[in-house]
Amino acid sequence: MGEFKSGFVSVLGRPNVGKSSLINALIGEKAGIVSRRPQTTRRRSRAILTGDDFQAVFLDTPGVHKIKNKLDEFMLDEIEKSMSGIDLILLVCDVSEKFGPGDEFIYSRIESRDIPAVLILNKIDLLHEKELAERIENYEKNADMPIITCSARRGTGKENIMDFLRENLPEGPQYYPDGMYVDKIERELVEEFIREQIFELTWDEIPYGTAVRVEEFEEKEDIIYIRANIFVEQKSHKGMIIGEEGSMLRKIGKRARQEIEKMMQDKVYLDLWVKEKKDWRKKEKWMKNLGYEL
Ligand SMILES: Nc1nc2c(ncn2[C@@H]2O[C@H](COP(=O)(O)OP(=O)(O)OP(=O)(O)O)[C@@H](O)[C@H]2O)c(=O)[nH]1
């Protein structure tokens, strides 16, 4: 029996090459990373693949070169930062297209780092054998990495990717329990966006005593409904955040909603409530409930 292997795997690639599909194929539909909605939304989440002797934690990173808004910038930043904590990189390309500038851009970012990486040529179901052989040659010329071919749609090539993970992940603990497939952090980002607006729009002394907690997060047919509580320490703070006839809260809500919509690429209904929890910072249980690990 070998040691247990585990680590963080960054899945990089241009938009639409099939990163989410690939993760889903590896983990099974349980992960549900690819949105059921027609426009693929940018779901930021970790997906977890647990085998008998290894665990891979996938960071489903976005198409790297598409810096459109603040969130994308945040992600690019996050990719750059998180590279240091990454154990393996899967660079996913769409084999039905030639190695292009977008692939090159991401490849150059990976190449300069000392992290084991593999080139995943996805969508082989779209090519005939001969075309495929030529295309693989094209990729080999451009990228100095081991290559694995697969079709996330058909599920072919999965075993080879699993073997690669098993062989190349470092020894490490099982981070997540069996049966856990996703670790979503959207909620945290929503909370962060709301906190940010409170910080910008109210007086300095309020934000430090403020916590935001998403209580409900529901994807409805045509809108995402989010209900969040803003907890304040003092009654006077409650009044300040709500403002005259609710004007401040509306302003906070509107701005935060716009940020959230950018992230979700979808319409959002943001339902904000302000609640007083006296001296919550001193109370451990509340701290935990509010999402602060002590
Ligand atoms: N034919 C074929 N299509 C695939 C395959 N894998 C993914 N697709 C399709 O390619 C499209 C993009 O797939 P996603 O998994 O959303 O791609 P992504 O790289 O996560 O895209 P972004 O979220 O935009 O970065 C979808 O329409 C998939 O159904 C494959 O192996 N073969």
From TrEMBL:
Top-rank lineage group of the source organism: Bacteria
GO biological process, one term: ribosomal small subunit assembly
Region (G2): 39-43
A Pfam family matched in the record: MMR_HSR1
Cleavable signal peptide: none
Domain spans labelled Era-type G: 5-171
Binding-site residues, GTP: 13-20, 60-64, 122-125
Domain KH type-2: 190-278
Start and end residues of each stretch annotated as G3: 60-63
Keywords from the named record: Cell membrane, Cytoplasm, GTP-binding, Membrane, Nucleotide-binding, Ribosome biogenesis, RNA-binding, rRNA-binding
PROSITE patterns reported for this sequence: G_ERA, KH_TYPE_2
Location of this chain's protein in the cell: Cytoplasm; Cell membrane
Spans annotated as G5: 150-152
Membrane topology note: Peripheral membrane protein
Region (G4): 122-125
Main location: cytoplasm
GO CC terms, sorted: cytosol; plasma membrane
Gene Ontology molecular function: GTP binding; GTPase activity; ribosomal small subunit binding; small ribosomal subunit rRNA binding
UniProt region (G1), positions on chain: 13-20
Biological function: An essential GTPase that binds both GDP and GTP, with rapid nucleotide exchange. Plays a role in 16S rRNA processing and 30S ribosomal subunit biogenesis and possibly also in cell cycle regulation and energy metabolism.
Family in the record: Belongs to the TRAFAC class TrmE-Era-EngA-EngB-Septin-like GTPase superfamily. Era GTPase family.
PANTHER family documented for this protein: GTPASE ERA (PTHR42698), GTPASE ERA, MITOCHONDRIAL (PTHR42698:SF1)
Subunit structure: Monomer.
Entry protein name: GTPase Era
Species of origin: Halarsenatibacter silvermanii
